[in-house]
Amino acid sequence: MRVLIIEDDRDVASFIQKGLSQAGWNVDHADDGKDGLFLATTEKYDALIVDRMLPGVDGLTLIRTLRASSNSTPALILSALGEVDDRVSGLRAGSDDYLVKPFAFSELLARLEALVRRAGASSVAAKTVLQVADLRMDLLRREVNRGDRQIDLQPREFQLLEFLMRHAGQVVTRTMLLEGVWDYHFDPQTNVIDVHISRLRSKIDKGFDRPLLHTVRGAGYRLDG
After folding, report:
1. How many Cα atoms occupy the beta-carbon half-sphere of 129 within 13 Å?
2. What strand order describes the sheet that includes 26-30?
């Protein structure tokens, strides 16, 4: 993950940079709003940490400028101003979160990770066509094709395949399927998953040279090419 810290207090910036680097992030730093805005608009970042009171261009103006140019990179404001009105104005400027100084690094990291997760989920959710190898799902038309063959699926089979395709290449566990497809938050100890996986496999793999739906013994299932 790559993050840009826009902070004029060098001690604060160094503290954050050291902690994030140790947590595995790639970190860039700008110590004024003008340089921060330039980097934020010319480089690709997974998140921004923006001090509210910056020289050159203040943090709120910086974020408003980014949003006006359709830059939706998640932004976390840092500020010593912690009143409700201050936080509200920060959020209304287009920031995604607001953290008051002084802060615990563990909280900053948790908030940053949450912002990136939400941004990733939104990006995935926005997709209307999913594809794995020659298997294609059109979510708007509710159509599934493998190669030039159209595949007819029941509603639950469609949901199951969509979930697997959104997690293509990953091992999907029974718990993930129960929660994500059946909305069960417990295991009813039935073979409902096995039955639907079997039906789905017969429809998307039968008659094709290369199987896409694999059973990972003791772990779950994986859809990949």
Report:
1. 6
2. 26-30, 2-6, 47-51, 75-79, 97-100
| Spatial CB neighbours of 198, under 8 Å, sequence gap ≥ 6 | none
> What confidence tens digit (pLDDT) does each residue in 143-190 have?
999 999 999 999 999 999 999 998 899 899 988 999 889 988 777 788
Give the tens place of pLDDT for each residue, 102-124.
999 999 999 999 998 888 766 55
Q: Answer for the pair 72, 47: CB distance below 8 angstroms, yes or no.
A: no
Start-to-end CA span in the chain (Å): 26
CB 130 within 8 A of CB 166: yes
Are the beta carbons of 85 and 117 closer than 8 angstroms? no
CA distances to 200, 201, 225 from 206, rounded to whole Å, are 10, 7, 15
Residues 97, 149, single domain; the answer is no
Angle between helices 84-92 and 59-68 (to 10 degrees): 30
- Record the tokens describing residue 107, joined without a space: 């909280």
Residues 25 and 75 in one domain: yes
Q: Which of 88, 108, 126 is the last residue of a domain?
A: 126
Looking at the fold, whether 139 and 99 belong to one and the same domain comes out as: no
Total domains, the chain: 2
DSSP track, 16-44: HHHHHHHTT-EEEEESSHHHHHHHHHHS-
Cα separation, 62 vs 60, whole angstroms: 5
